[in-house]
Amino acid sequence: MNKSFSNRQNGIADNLFIERWSPRSFSSESMPSADLKKLIDAARWSPSTLNEQPWLFYTAHRKSAKFNDFVTCLSEGNQVWAKNAAVLGFLIARKFFKNKARENQLAQFDCGSAWMALTMQARLLGYFTHGMGGIDRDLVRDLLLLNEKEHSVIMGFAVGKKADSALLPENLREKEKPSNRDDLVSFWKSF
């Protein structure tokens, strides 16, 4: 096991969690629509404040007419590798409760739960995901016809099968490995 993967050996959670990581090397292998639907369905079952389910997922398959539009919404650094993924997507939060009476202060938190569910379902099906903060949120909003007052563009993401990291540019190959995790004592205080 390489050095950056070394402290994953002392994890006590299920291997599904320990072995999850976000590669940049994606193969151009397509993803069946049924598999993508299963990922989105996993997100649907995530917990949320008052069962509000504030998440909106927008996805584009590699061969769809919108895929290149999705690519252009990514930062240049992310475009280099993410354009090879089977699916690109954006996760959006509805800022207000469905009855519009008040703002949902936990909408983005709840969307994080949905993202984790999608990611874990992807791993169970043999896919990898990579979340991206490096996106042009204004471009995403324009592309998806979102109202800035009602919607928050949280992140972009790539989904697909992992490819050989040798296919990446050299500067990205060095980063293409699972990262360490902080020890439990650094963030957990139990009384």
The low-confidence runs, each spanning 5 or more residues with pLDDT under 50, are none
CATH superfamily: NADH Oxidase
Number of strands: 4
Strand order in the sheet with the most strands: 1-2-4-3
Based on the structure, what is the oligomeric state of the protein chains?
Answer: single chain
Question: CATH top level?
Answer: Alpha Beta
| Percent helix | 25-40%
% residues in beta strands: 15-25%
Summarize the structure in words.
By secondary structure, the chain is α+β, with helices and mostly antiparallel strands. It has one domain: NADH Oxidase (3-Layer(aba) Sandwich). Helix content is 31%, strand content 16%. A four-stranded antiparallel sheet has the order 1-2-4-3, sandwiched between helices. The longest helix has 18 residues, at 107-124. The mean pLDDT is 94.
How are the secondary structure elements laid out?
Layout: H1 15-18, H2 33-44, E1 55-61, H3 67-72, H4 76-82, E2 87-94, H5 107-124, E3 128-132, H6 137-144, E4 151-160, H7 170-173
Antiparallel strand pairs: 1-2, 2-4, 3-4
Helix pairs in contact: 2-5
Question: Gist?
Answer:
The protein is α+β, with helices and mostly antiparallel strands and 191 residues long. Helices cover 31% and strands 16% of the residues.
Main features:
191 residues; alpha+beta; NADH Oxidase; 7 helices; 4 strands; 31% helix; globular
